[in-house]
Every structure is written in structure tokens, then in C-alpha cells.
Write a structure and sequence with these properties.
Strand content: 15-25%
Order of helices and strands: EEHEHEEHEHEHEHEHEEHEH
Number of domains: 1
Radius of gyration: 19 Å
Number of helices: 9
Strand order of the largest sheet: 3-6-8-9-10-11-12
Number of strands: 12
Largest sheet: 7 strands, parallel
CATH topology: TIM Barrel
Structural class: alpha/beta
CATH architecture: Alpha-Beta Barrel
């Protein structure tokens, strides 16, 4: 996989979420009609937290640093909102943030945003994230976010009455945002997507490609999520084979999915993986507090390489999902084990 015009064998990254230090609590950024930061003190604390998260990733040897989503309130999931479900919609024109509880039983404690008018990009959404990460690291870094298809189904739509039209306008707004971020120096993006295991309808790829339209020179990673809110699985069935047509049509550089927690049971289903993309495999269990050994990580990578699904130059190494719900000591130790295991495999190769 090419990073800054250099080929990297078994490149490493993490999905996004990472535990925050205890002194950073609550909301960091203001919503649509508020200042970018809630206060100067919160800005300093947030930027310090980004530096610590970047240091942990650099110490582990990661090649693409994740933004670590230090602006999310990982400490109290489910008290009115799950932050990853709300952050983007609260920053877009045409949306009111506090609607009824989610209709899905599992998420009934999360309130939905309400679409009351045409979706529009009004102001930068992730500008503060990019600024903090540019100060935190000299390595390539990525911003992680939910995409237009996923956002379109977790809102209460009282304007469009057409899910695809709603998703397409979210895609257009995010396209404006991502081009703005590229102008600030952003080199990589991490799309977090829960929808594809539930439905393989092609409209979600059409809106994804609309969102990425014209974004040349940016590494685009697509994380397919089987669920990890508070460490819980959402999707128990294997869906890799069903999702393969989506992977082929998506304008992304890499597709990443959980493997370790599923004991690599879907490995053979990826034999038809498109040859123009890197395959991201989870080698760290994001639902298990036990810390892996480097040898376990190396064995998991070796299993995939021996299966001859993709060559080493098209294999991306990551945890199964985000690490935001762990303690910082466990999360950092898991990253270190991943880095040590990858180094073992690089020497072997």
C-alpha cells in the first residue's frame, strides 16, 4: 500500500475510537450555532489528548495515525445519545438535534436527530480535528466518520420522505467538507459503516462515491462494522460474501472488517476480493479486554497470507474495531502488541 509515494508492506492503522484521558470529559466541539470549541480550556485539554493518543500510536509503530475521536464522550455511552450517531448531523443545516428516541429497541435510549429541511453544508465539521492532529504528529493521519448512507437511516426524516435523496444530499454536504479538509492538508479518511451487513442495496455505494467525488490523492479507508457500541456485537451472521459486490464498486483504497473476534471464519469468503483494493484485517479483538501477544498477532497475519487471499502489499493491519471503550492501559498495550507482531512478520517476509 502506498503512503506518501512509498510502498509500505503490512501498513498499520487503527479504526478510530480510543479512550480519553480522565481529565478530558464531556463535549469538546460546539454544535451548528455555537463556537468551534466550548471553551479555551476544553480546546487545550482536547489538543493535549490528541497528542497523547498520537504518541501511543507512534510508539506502536502505526503508519497511518487515527484521529482517536477524542472529541467523543466515550465515558458515558447511551445517556441520551451515542456520540458517533449524532456528531455530523448536529453540524449540518436542515437538521434539528433532539427528536424522539430511536425506534430500534437496542438504541431506544439514543435520541434521533430530525431532518426538517434540505441538508446543507454550513460550516466546517472536522476542522478542529485536523488542526489538532497536524500539531500532534508528522505522520499521515486520518479523520474517521459515519458516511451518508448510515447517517440517513439514523435520523427522523420529516422533509425528504425519500431515503436515497436524503443520503445523496448528506453525501454532497460531506463532499464539500472533505474537500475543505484536504485543502487543510488531510491525507487520509476512515469511513465507518454499519449498514452494509444489513443490506447490500447498491444505492449506498452510489452515495458513498458521490461523497468521495473529486477527492484525488487522499487515502480512503472503509471500515465495515459488525457492531461494538459498549463492546457489544450487532451482527452475528457472516456477511462478507454477500457484501463483495459492494466492495467492487466502492471508490475506496481499502476495505477493513472484523476477523479476529470471528476467529477468521469468513476468510475463504474473501477469495474474490477485488484486486484494486487493500484488504484490512482485524488482528486485535476489540471486544476482549485480554491483551494479545505479538506472536498471536503474527500468527493471525500469517494465516491470511498463507490463505493467499491478497499479497502482503495489499494487506492492511488494524484492530477489529475501535478501542474507545477500553481503559487506556489496555488499548495502548493492544496497539503495542499489534505493532510488535507486524514487525515480526515484516522481518519474516
Amino acid at each position: 500500500m502506498k503512503l506518501r509515494n512509498e510502498e509500505v508492506i503490512l501498513p498499520m492503522s487503527m479504526v478510530g475510537g480510543y479512550p480519553r484521558p480522565h481529565w478530558l470529559q464531556g463535549r469538546v466541539f460546539g454544535s451548528l450555532h455555537e463556537p468551534l470549541y466550548r471553551s479555551s480550556a476544553i480546546r487545550v485539554a482536547y489538543e493535549d489528548a490528541c497528542r497523547l493518543a498520537a504518541q501511543d500510536q507512534e510508539r506502536a509503530g502505526l503508519d497511518i495515525i487515527a484521529d482517536a475521536q477524542q472529541y467523543f464522550d466515550w465515558e458515558s455511552p447511551g445517556l441520551q445519545l451515542e456520540p458517533i450517531f449524532h456528531y455530523i448531523t448536529e453540524m449540518l443545516g436542515g437538521v434539528q438535534p433532539w427528536g424522539p428516541p430511536n425506534e430500534q429497541q437496542k438504541y431506544a435510549k439514543f435520541y434521533t436527530a430530525v431532518v426538517t429541511d434540505k441538508i446543507e453544508w454550513v460550516r466546517p465539521i472536522f476542522e478542529g480535528v485536523v488542526a489538532a492532529m497536524k500539531a500532534a504528529t508528522d505522520k499521515p493521519f486520518k479523520v474517521a466518520f459515519l458516511g451518508p448512507a448510515q447517517n440517513s437511516i439514523i435520523v427522523d426524516d420529516r422533509h425528504y420522505n425519500d431515503n436515497v435523496a436524503l443520503a445523496m444530499d448528506i453525501a454532497a454536504a460531506l463532499n464539500t467538507e472533505l474537500k475543505y479538509l484536504q485543502g487543510l492538508g488531510l491525507e487520509a479518511l476512515q469511513l465507518i459503516d454499519v449498514l452494509p451487513p444489513y443490506t447490500q442495496e447498491m444505492w449506498q455505494i452510489e452515495v458513498m462515491n458521490r461523497m468521495f467525488d473529486g477527492l484525488e490523492g487522499v487515502t480512503k479507508l472503509w471500515h465495515i462494522c459488525y457492531g461494538s457500541v459498549d463492546g457489544q456485537t450487532d451482527v452475528w451472521e457472516d456477511k462478507g460474501k454477500d457484501m463483495m459486490p459492494l466492495f467492487s464498486e466502492a471508490n475506496v483504497d481499502a476495505v477493513h472488517i472484523e476477523f479476529t473476534h470471528r476467529e477468521f471464519g469468513e476468510l475463504e469468503d474473501f477469495r474474490g476480493f477485488p484486486d484494486d483494493k487493500a484488504l484490512g484485517i482485524g488482528v486485535i479483538d476489540s471486544k476482549d479486554t485480554n491483551i494479545e501477544t505479538p506472536e498471536q498477532v503474527a500468527d493471525r497475519i500469517r494465516k491470511v497470507l498463507n490463505a493467499d487471499i491478497v499479497p502482503p502489499e495489499r494487506l492492511l493491519i488494524m484492530p477489529d474495531c475501535g478501542l474507545g471503550y477500553f481503559s487506556r492501559s489496555v488499548a495502548s498495550a493492544k496497539l503495542k502488541a499489534m505493532g510488535d507482531g507486524v514487525r515480526m512478520m515484516r522481518e519474516e517476509l
